[in-house]
Every structure is written in structure tokens, then in C-alpha cells.
Amino acid sequence: MKMKNGAEENLRMSLTKIPGVSVESKAPSGELIVLVESADINELHKQCLEMEGMEGVLGVYPSYITTEDEAMALEK
Question: Across residues 43-62, what is the average pLDDT?
């Protein structure tokens, strides 16, 4: 998640209020690394839209998406 300078503290607090969302770390380049767990892709889309609308957010850029079916296939 790209954010404006000085927005990190408020964003971290706001993100904890979204079910299934946690801040994992901060990249050396300054982006927040956020883990989002949701029941389906539609819920994930809603969560991303909610994050994009937060004050101080410049953009939300998913880098990896997996589904339960995909995870089960990898276990075999």
C-alpha cells in the first residue's frame, strides 16, 4: 500500500478496524505490506476499495492472490 508521508500511524490504526486485514511490515521503499484474508474475491475487492478510500492512501496494489482451491492443489 503506497501512502502519503506522515500517514502511517493513522493508517495502521484504521487498518486494524477492517476484519481480515493486518499490517505485516513496512517495505524499505516505504509501502505498508498488508495481509488481507477474505472469503472470496468479491469480499477482497470490497476490502481493497475500503483501503483505497482511507485518508493518506495513494494506492493499493495486490501482489499475490491465492484461493483455497489453489492452496489445496499445492499441497498434493
Answer: 93
Give mean pLDDT, residues 29-53: 91
Distance CA 76, CA 7 (A): 43
3-state secondary structure of 26: strand
Q: pTM to 2 decimals?
A: 0.77
CA 32/CA 41 separation, integer angstroms: 21
Rounded Cα distance, 55 and 3, in Å: 9
pLDDT greater than 60 at residue 19: yes
Q: Which of 7, 5, 63, 56 is nearest to 34 (CA)?
A: 63
